[in-house]
Fold this protein.
Amino acid sequence: MYCRSIEQLPITCSVFDKIAMNQLHEAMTTIEAYQSRSFKQLENGTRLYCQVPSKGEGAWLHAVYSPMNGGDLEHCEILLNTALPDPLKEFYLFANGMYLYSGSLSFYGIRKSFTRNPELAWQPFDLSTPNIYERISDAKPWMIFIAAYDWDGSLVYYDVRDNTLSLCRATTTRPVFQWASLWEMVNREVVRLASHFDKFGVEIDPQRTTLPSVQSPNAAS
């Protein structure tokens, strides 16, 4: 079972309530359902679930990267030039990013190593890429890009003003889907994407979009 429950996180946040705890639990239960196929915990704490030989040697369905520490959070805030909201801190204290469903959805983190060592090579996509080097031209200062879908490069950004999340295309921040909170997004997407893969971690229909398909009533029309 996953080793860092929300109750173990070393910060206090009034919004990190029972609902958030249940959302994390459901998401991790879905991910860990593949542990019976195969599982490996690397020396750095990264957890790999379900080898997928059809994707190539050393391919895994899920990677939950080892948690950030206080120094990592400070590095993030310096890198992004903004204070991280508590829910985002909580996420990174649980995992320094995630690689889910063979990369269908990836959460950015801090890349700490560029070694070719097969184990240490399991690193998250770096937060600096969407937030600095490839930042969308119309992005606002209050947007932190935290995740991406490999279907078409769509991004998910965190709105630090109200803690909501929005899905946008790779070229504009105009929202096409929204979630009320970070943990709602994590839970719903992990559970939703499970229907796209069989018990062996093989994608059922590669031609079926992995993006959320129902437009949020709060999204721009």
Remarks:
- The CA atoms of residues 5 and 25 lie 8 Å apart.
- Confidence is low (pLDDT under 50) at residues 1-15, 215-221.
- Helices lie at 18-32, 70-80, 86-94, 128-133, 182-194.
- The longest strand covers residues 143-149.
